[in-house]
Structures
1.
Amino acid sequence: MTPAHEQAVLPAPHTSDVPALLERGRTLATPVLREVVDRLAPPMNTVAAYHFGWIDAMGRPTEGDSGKAVRPALALLSAEAAGGPCEAGIPGAVAVELVHNFSLLHDDLMDGDEQRRHRDTVWKVHGPAQAILVGDALFALATEVLLEVGTADAGRATRRLTTATRKLIDGQAQDISFEHRERVTVAECLEMEGNKTGALLACASSIGAVLGGADDATADALEAYGYHLGLAFQAVDDLLGIWGEPAVTGKQTWSDLRQRKKSLPVVAALAAKGPAAERLGELLAADAKNPEIDDFSEEEFATRAALIEEAGGRAWTTEEARRQHATALDALNGVVMPEEIKQCLFALADFVVVRER
């Protein structure tokens, strides 16, 4: 199986130290995040700690994988892009990370995913009720964290976060509805992914600037960067959802096909002309009427993946990731910022698109 990233190679990454940027985001945001999560009543605080990778299923401290921390890094950089200290973006970094994890807890349950970051998901360990409650609690905490800043700019930031969260939920609802439709257009899929992924990355890329007092024009330009970066991120995620290596992604082979997702490679392949697109359409139409898709053999999923690639869905999605990446970088031309901060934003964009998980 060829990893998706081999078809999504971009020009050589910019020279900024991305691991250091991500680590800075973790270092500054995690202590505040832990303090906020500790406000939750038992057992929600423990369940949340397990989800974040701070403890194992038995409650023992662990150094588990808590994610890439792209959103906190973006929130801190956005504060600096607007001319302020990175610390001004910490409440935004924490709030966005809380909303992101609220969505993960609910998504894992709705999608039936039993693994995240190479270990059992919260609903699998603690049950569906706890996954729902803790997700809801994290969303409430996100608003609480921002409003506690107590400034007019905190109110502006909160409005942006709640709007982004509503769009994220819209996107998840669209994604679920698409699973039960035989056909979805490319435009519909891009709208869904812009809501589900682009909106929160857009918020992360602007919220630090807003907290630091940036005007709307600056915040909007940073938001556009994050939105298109989110679309690029999701395009790569869609490639990995079909062709990613399970040992790297932490998910099953053909995971998106198992969940009947109408992701970009699938939708682009169905929109193409030719025998492969027609055969794929016939198979997926039959699958939609079959509740036993989980019983398919590996060969049946491999057949569908091969037809998607033959019809051009993989190549189109790879090119779409490049297009959205370029559009994200162009948006930064609308912001006057220190050159080193711009290079950091460029580097993070490269990192998001050139990845294996």
2.
Amino acid sequence: MATGRQCYHRRAVVLLVAVFVVTVDGAAAGGVGVDGFITWDDLSVPAGASQWSTWDDKAAGGGEQRTTIVVSPDGTGHSKTVQGAVDMVPNGNKRRVKILIRPGVYREKVTVPITKPLVSLIGMGSGRTVITWHARASDVIDSSGHQVGTFYSASVAVEADYFCASHITFENSAPAAPPGAVGQQAVALRLSGDKTVLYKCRILGTQDTLFDNIGRHYLYNCDIQGSIDFIFGNARSLYQGCSLHAVATSYGAIAASQRSSPSEESGFSFVGCRLTGSGMLYLGRAWGKYSRVVYSYCDLSGIVVPQGWSDWGDQSRTKTVLFGEYSCKGPGASTKQRVPWSRTLTLEEAQPFIGRSFIDGDQWLRL
């Protein structure tokens, strides 16, 4: 697996530059949440909003622009599709736009482009509001034989800053990939923007479920399912109170951090998360030479391989990665047989990874 991932790094760099430009412009406009923060209000809609219409795309030329778009598969909202609702958001948007998605299974690929920051996708129950598609990296997309690739296999791709989602299921329903399969990566959700919050969302797939690509992200009380590297990328993300559910048939891995130099601030921190499921799982694999993954206060089931961690077949990475555990519990938390180059952290060493400061949360979160 993952033989084609290097080509995504170049795309990530281009996206990162563009994301920076939008972030600076958006902050200068003063249109981000309350005093530049994402708040609980950004993750919810007023009571009864699913019954009434609040969007007025003609108001931009005069009066106050209204900021709730309703998606309903029966045609009673403003759009029957999620992508149709995203398309209604003006480019260069400078105020929060909430897209309320009524219950239903939305079988479509969705992209929130970099030109549309400040979008919230708000469902009405993660099991009731589902966005699903079935693309795999090896799928052919045109007559010349070009393939989708992992990057573009995502059912939902978020490239914009200040994105929020709550109570939604993001799914890639492609058939499960066996270990070692080529071209079977199937991403349910790709996060390529900065300052993103997901709350009580489900992200379902098998191989490469969540492409946590670039940016700072906060996933709170979410459910993430997969088998092989089902959380991967080069973002700096805090997973708090999340359920990590493995559906591996043999061996698999939870996290693959792409961090490739000590100057990069990326990495994954799991705090108070719970691991369940099947197979035998590595806690993390060293996709990047300076891969960084830390588990704190997590409940780890017995499906964790005793060694805990993988060097991705490159022993030189054992000298540069940071794979750590602090105060975890459960049958899989025993560190007696861990690889010698992983670390059992002290409280002082774990502290930078435990709180929202890991993702500079004091600068953009008010939750």
3.
Amino acid sequence: MRVLVLLAALLCGLPSLAANRCDTAVPTAMAEVGEVRLAYQSVGRVADPTLLLVMGIGGQLIDWPDEVVQALCAQGFRVIRFDNRDAGLSTWVGQAPSANLTYQALRYRLGLEVSAPYGLRDMAGDALGLMDRLGIQRFHVLGASMGGMIAQHLADLAPQRVSSLTLVMTSSGAQGLPAPSPALLALLTRREADSRAQAIEQQADLLAALGSPAVADDRRELLAQARSAYDRAFNPEGVQRQLLAILAEPSRVALLERLQVPTLVVHGTADPLLPVMHGVHVAAHIKGSQLRLIPGLAHRFQAAFKAPLLGAVLPYLAAHRHPVGLATL
């Protein structure tokens, strides 16, 4: 087999082999994890250290840009991206939530208890269960937005298994941090679409609102992205349940302060959903963490910011790819 690989390298060139190794057009597999079934993709060599990507509210694994996944894989990682419960092709938990979101959001603002069908720690348990099913003992975690909140719990649940933590555009959930505008929250929770076309327009509106004011979005690209997401899976009730899970979460400051995992926090200065102080607050409460602020970055993976995002994340991951004294499987 080694001879065949060497011959292929000579005939096709090593860059071609690297490109094939990091091909994102891999089949989506399914894993039974406790009470849920998770859809996931594995990109890269099984023998390489694993990097688990955890997506934000309502997001699907396809919302991780292919070129970002390829860049992470090219660093020598096996990259796994998956659909959280209540998103994409993974298990949709149940009926539409009976709780009124506006009322529950008000209770959250007042510091009162919020009811939810499941919590972020349950979602972290899903991610850990996926690693168990795949036989992966140690792994790196990169979480964005709600995915960063889930990643915080994951590192707390299994600190001996998480080699490094990268938290992008996320929050500690502490009271008193700047809140998003009511208009943006309305866009996030608006799901009363009468048709596919209307739902796609609404999603494009949300994507535009989450983008940087310094970047002029191409409406056709936003619509194409919204169309791909809708046609793969459209689950507005799942978004509401995930939002309830966030609102029901108490402050994670105590959790952050006990973390011992090497951590990088990346946040944009123009984030309209989780303003920049959310990222600063997270980094301030994780001992030894690094903070990288990206000027103009908002709350989306826009093309104009992929280079600075990768410029912040790739060197950090490369430095922690093989933890000293630990075997990454």
